[in-house]
Amino acid sequence: METINILFELFPYAIMGSIAAGVICSFLGVFVVSQRVVFLGAALTQTAIAGVAFAFLHLINLENTITSIFGIEVNEESFLHHFEHTFFSLLFTAAAVLIFSQSYRQKFITKDSLLGIIFVIAIALRIIFIQKSPIAEVAEIESILKGDILFIGAQEFYTLLTILIIIFLIFSLFSKQLRFVTFDSDTAAAHGINDRLWLVIFYLTVGIGISLTTRFVGDVFTFAFLILPASVAILIAKRIISVFIYSIIIGSIVPPLAIYIAFELDISSGPTAVVLVFLLFITVFSYKKLRA
Amino acid sequence: MVKDKNNTLIRFKDVSIGYGNKTIHKDINIEIEQNDFIGLVGPNGSGKTTFLKTLLGNIKPLSGIIEKKVVNCGYVPQRDTVQPLLPYSVHDVVMMGRYSLMGLFKLPSAKDEKIVDESLQKVGISELRNLNYNSLSGGQRQRTLIARALAVEPSVLILDEPTNGMDTPSHYSLLNLISELHAKSNLTVLLVSHLLSDVANLVKKLILFETGRFQSGTIEEMLSEKNLGQTYSANIEVKKINGEYHITSSHNE
Predict the structure, then answer these.
(1) Which of A133, A152, B133, B203 supports an S-S bond with A56, CB 3.0-4.6 Å?
(2) Strand B234-241 relative to strand B188-193: parallel, antiparallel, unpaired?
(3) Is the minimum CB–CB distance between B66 and chain A shorter than 8 Å?
């Protein structure tokens, strides 16, 4: 109990932020896993990191650009001052999503190949950007790029919360279209639904979620929580709504639990969360396998 | 749009179909009329699915014009292309047929629910309503996909290889269902198959696809021994016994 009190006192936003990040990933993960585009998660996490690394080059001064276009004064306390890394992370991810959407209904390249190309190019660019960054040591930038649950502050938490609400809104308002095109895009198109447009909206939403969670909690946490909670939920749920409920419950409970265990054992919270959710997966998977 | 008052629902005028620079069939001139029952037959890779996708507007014709009356097309894809990981119920799947007819933000209404129930009833799977789609047999899945197409309240029902990979009883049961749907509802039906024997005794018109060759006509015109012999490069024998076509072949040396 004492540890819990200390944690709430020291890291209130980290705890709430980890829940928000866990819910974002586990919710989006249901679509990613069911669409069989798991590697999209890996490619987009690396693309998001490449975007943040690009920001360290300071080739484009976003603050000055915003000031000159909109006449807004950006001070050091404002959200926009800290927005640069997130902006480039989002920009890179959106570009990757648009490139990926070109794999749709054409025979020149498979989805897997295109995701593989995006994945390796993102890693290569990240390395080059970091090497050419004028401001800090490579190791220091790498640690910033990777994110850390415990570094989530008020601003990061509110950003994650906003994105979570936006994602829920998009998927609630357009659930019919997204459900149909992710289930059977050919028939959706035959029935007059613009499947290509809806798939791009779907992938862009996934990209925004991945980009921000990667920025704040790291690529390993993001990728793991995209796959594992949804995979557990699919194993145990009997109805479609239950898949989302189970996945979100796992995504919201495991991260704060991981922070507690990591604090007690003096280990990193992100990897602890990943191991915990993996243990849950392997337990459920083994149980299902034995029963079958 | 077709503005004439005849029964033509869809008209292809000098249409070429294919992907990119590759033309699969050219100079297609056909009319699909109300209450037609048309079989689209040809071996795998002969362009049947490309033709269907062009007809449905999923891909654009390379040239020519496709005129359509305002018709709802109910599409039944090949069953193997729909293999969800998520536990959608039969009701969930059939309700998808209503999605394109609802408003952008609207939820299913009582009318939508009624139409879904009627569609399930028409294909004889009302009792499967709440079951998981993944738990169904091949025949039951196919009926679910047909129910979804019927939920569109279509003027034209298009089925892509609906009996593929089915056991014999399910195969004939499904063909009977399609025939019944056509007869009872005056539904225009386009049935794709790679087996001529599948559709010969079912449909009124045939479209035959061969690599680079496309021909269409009434069943009597298309099933002449001479025509089939030329199309399939084989000695084809066509007999009509008790009103049913029996087609046998032996390939030319």
Answers:
(1) A133
(2) unpaired
(3) no
> CA B34 to CA A86: how far, in whole Å?
57
Answer whether B87 touches A (CB < 8 Å): yes
Q: How many angstroms separate the CA atoms of B197 and B200, rounded?
A: 5
For chain A, the first-to-last Cα distance in angstroms comes to: 40
What is the full DSSP assignment across A233-269?
HHHH-SSHHHHHHHHHHHHHHHHHHHHHHHHHHT--H
Length of chain B: 253
Inter-helix orientation angle B90-99/A175-183, to 10°: 110
Q: Which amino acid is at B28?
A: I
3-class DSSP assignment, residue A280: helix
Q: Which residues of A touch B73 (CB under 8 A)?
A: 190-191
CB A147 within 8 A of CB A218: yes
Q: Do B82 and A180 touch (CB under 8 A)?
A: no
Q: Are residues A155 and A79 in contact, defined by beta-carbon separation less than 8 angstroms?
A: yes
Q: Do A243 and A30 meet the contact criterion of CB atoms below 8 Å apart?
A: yes
pLDDT tens for chain B, 253 residues long, are 444 557 888 999 999 998 877 888 888 999 999 899 999 988 777 888 889 889 988 888 999 999 988 778 899 998 877 878 899 999 999 999 999 898 888 889 999 999 999 999 999 999 999 999 999 998 899 999 999 999 999 999 999 988 887 888 888 888 999 999 998 888 999 999 877 877 888 898 999 888 777 888 888 888 888 777 777 777 888 887 877 788 887 655 4
Q: Residue B107: closest CA among chain A residues belongs to which residue? A: A176
The residues, ordered by sequence, that sit 6+ positions from B228 with a Cβ below 8 Å of its Cβ are B196, B222, B234, B236, B238, B247, B249
Distance from CA of B112 to the nearest CA of A (A): 13
| Cα–Cα distance measured from residue B56 to residue B158, given in angstroms and rounded to the nearest whole number | 9
Q: What is the DSSP string of A54-73?
A: HHTT--S-HHHHHHHHH---
Nearest CA in chain A to B159: A187
Query: CA of B194, closest CA in chain A: separation in Å?
Result: 20
Which of B77, B85, B99 is the closest to A186 by Cβ? B77
CA distance A233 to B85: 11
Shortest distance between the Cα of B221 and any Cα of chain A, in A, equals 31
CB contact under 8 A, B89 and A239: yes
Q: Residue A29 is which amino acid?
A: G
Residues of B in contact with A179 (CB under 8 A): 96, 99
Distance of residue A108 Cα from the nearest chain B Cα, in angstroms: 11
Q: Determine contact, residues B158/B52, Cβ cutoff 8 Å.
A: yes
Chain B environment of A242 (Cβ under 8 Å): 87
